[in-house]
Amino acid sequence: MSATPFAFATTDLCDAHEARLLDGRLGVAAPPWIALGAVERFAGPAVTVRVPDDNSLVRAVLEQPGAGRVLVVDGGASTRCALVGGKLGELGERNGWQGVIVNGCVRDAGELDACRFGVRALHLHPRRSDRRGRGERDPVLAFAGVTVSPGDWIYADRDGWLVSAGGPLPG
Questions:
Q1: Which letter, b or e, does each residue of 130-164 get, where b requires 16 or more Cβ atoms within 10 Å of its Cβ?
Q2: At the top level of CATH, which class does the domain 10-164 belong to?
Q3: For labelling alongside 107, which of 35, 55, 62, 149 has CA 20 to 30 A away?
Q4: Beta bridge partner(s), residue 120
Q5: 93-137: per-residue pLDDT in tens?
Q6: Given CA atoms 61, 62, 65, 66 in this order, what sign does their dihedral have?
Q7: Structural domain boundaries of the chain?
């Protein structure tokens, strides 16, 4: 199963939903973000994890059926290691995840670019993460000037990514 193509542009969504931007129901993640994966844009309900330089929980979540969801990973903006690489990108694609947003680093850029799976991350890093089973599933995350709760709707394209509180944008 591969990611579904979407026709939105985050710029157009911001323009069309200014009232939501002003009242906080729509958030824009502050840059910088790099875009990887063969999917230019992706959207879906958020699943959240918080992991301390350990991608065990990231793998465990991506092993489950994605059902069109987006995994949002708070790695604390760490630059010590990568939390997602080519194998996890392939796993996410195979299991029907739309994409992953990583507040931290990823690796295997060429392999991730070959996946029909969207990836947004802060940086690239060649070192793999620890695998000690540490992390938290379904926390409310706050980074890059946005708050992401499980079930919030994520919209991502090359211009950036948005969080719609509580579900998809109307219309």
A1: eeeeebeeeeebebbebebbbebbbbbbebbbbbb
A2: alpha beta
A3: 149
A4: 35, 101
A5: 999 999 999 999 999 999 999 999 999 999 999 999 988 889 999
A6: positive
A7: 10-164
